[in-house]
């Protein structure tokens, strides 16, 4: 036990989804004892095979579903419901199709009755930052995949979440767009130092982005190993060819395969 502050604290988190099978109650255990601390400002990647419970864990942290047992704290408080202190980004950006980029970004502040001139100025600044200043009046269907992701990002960032929860946010993008989004995310994190929990099953992505990688075991998921990624910052895609990067990647792949 240490007194070091944690942004996210998970202790022995368990989750079983119940379902009826041939009239009998059956269950599928998704998480079988996950424990993990994420430090403030840390970029933590959650890595594991398909079905090991990564999305389940993120949904628990987001407050969309509840764990059966265990401790789930964000910013020192138990998670009981979704909240603006946690910004969530999924594989598919869930923008409101009937709202423009500008309206999507201002959705949270508007819902909270917080549409001040300062917030509008910040929205304009954010759209500039994510390269969507010219697309502020466009609707989601008029944007490319990468642009939609950046709009979803801006919509989350305007709420100043203490923790960003990202579930394979670039998984559906082509390689070039994905590399662009990874660069954008690294620059943003470098500037804001928001705590990030980033789900991926891509070893290279985890190595490029993370301070540490938490490897979950094969279904049902539990914490298997937590590895430090001791590569210098700032990192860029060019680093992926260095010997240190390749070695770090190999260590993570070996942990995954153990
Ligand atoms: N709402 C649900 N009802 C029943 N079972 C569920 C539900 N959500 C997830 N599961 C089950 O829990 C397990 C973990 O699912 P989860 O989506 O968390 O895995 P994952 O690690 O995110 O996988 P992937 O990498 O494929 O996205 C799976 O066996 C899945 O079938
Ligand atoms: Mg998933």
Verbal overview:
This protein is of the alpha/beta class. 33% of the residues lie in helices and 26% in strands. It contains eight helices and ten strands. The protein has helices at residues 54-62, 101-105, 107-111, 117-129, 145-157, 175-192, 203-209, 243-257; strands spanning 8-21, 24-38, 43-47, 69-74, 77-78, 86-89, 163-167, 195-200, 212-216, 223-228. Strands 6-7-8-3-9-10 form a six-stranded mixed β-sheet, sandwiched between helices. α7 packs across α8. It is globular, with a radius of gyration of 19 Å. It starts with 7 loop residues before the first strand and ends with a helix. The model has no long low-confidence stretch (mean pLDDT 92). The structure holds adenosine-5'-triphosphate and magnesium ion. GO terms for molecular function: ATP binding; ATP hydrolysis activity. It comes from Actinomadura barringtoniae. This is ABC transporter ATP-binding protein.
Q: Helices and strands in order, then pairings?
A:
Layout: E1 8-21, E2 24-38, E3 43-47, H1 54-62, E4 69-74, E5 77-78, E6 86-89, H2 101-105, H3 107-111, H4 117-129, H5 145-157, E7 163-167, H6 175-192, E8 195-200, H7 203-209, E9 212-216, E10 223-228, H8 243-257
Parallel strand pairs: 3-8, 3-9, 6-7, 7-8
Antiparallel strand pairs: 1-2, 1-4, 4-5, 9-10
Helix pairs in contact: 7-8
The protein binds adenosine-5'-triphosphate (ATP) and magnesium ion.
Domain ABC transporter: 8-243
Keywords: ATP-binding, Nucleotide-binding, Transport
GO molecular function, one term: ATP hydrolysis activity
């Amino acid at each position: 036990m240490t007194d070091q502050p944690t942004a996210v604290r998970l202790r022995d988190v368990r989750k079983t989804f119940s379902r009826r099978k041939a009239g009998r109650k059956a269950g599928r255990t998704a998480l079988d004892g996950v424990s993990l601390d994420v430090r403030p400002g840390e970029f933590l990647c959650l890595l594991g095979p398909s079905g090991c419970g990564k999305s389940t864990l993120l949904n628990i942290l987001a407050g969309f579903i509840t764990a059966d047992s265990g401790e789930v704290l964000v910013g020192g408080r138990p998670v009981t419901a979704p909240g603006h202190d946690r910004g969530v980004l999924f594989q598919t950006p869930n923008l409101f199709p009937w709202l423009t980029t500008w309206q999507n970004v201002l959705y949270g502040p508007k819902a909270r009755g917080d549409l001040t001139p300062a917030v509008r100025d910040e929205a304009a600044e954010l759209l500039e930052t994510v390269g969507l200043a010219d697309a502020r009046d466009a609707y989601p269907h008029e944007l490319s995949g990468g642009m939609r992701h950046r709009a979803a990002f801006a919509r989350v960032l305007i709420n100043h979440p203490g923790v960003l929860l990202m579930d394979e946010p670039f998984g559906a993008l082509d390689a070039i767009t994905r590399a662009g989004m990874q660069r954008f995310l690294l620059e943003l994190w470098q500037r804001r130092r928001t705590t990030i929990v980033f789900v991926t099953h891509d070893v290279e992505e985890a190595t490029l982005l993370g301070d540490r990688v938490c490897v979950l075991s094969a279904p049902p998921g539990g914490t298997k190993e937590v590895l430090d990624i001791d590569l210098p910052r700032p990192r860029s895609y060019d680093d992926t060819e260095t010997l240190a990067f390749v070695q770090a990647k190999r260590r993570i792949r070996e942990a995954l395969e153990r």
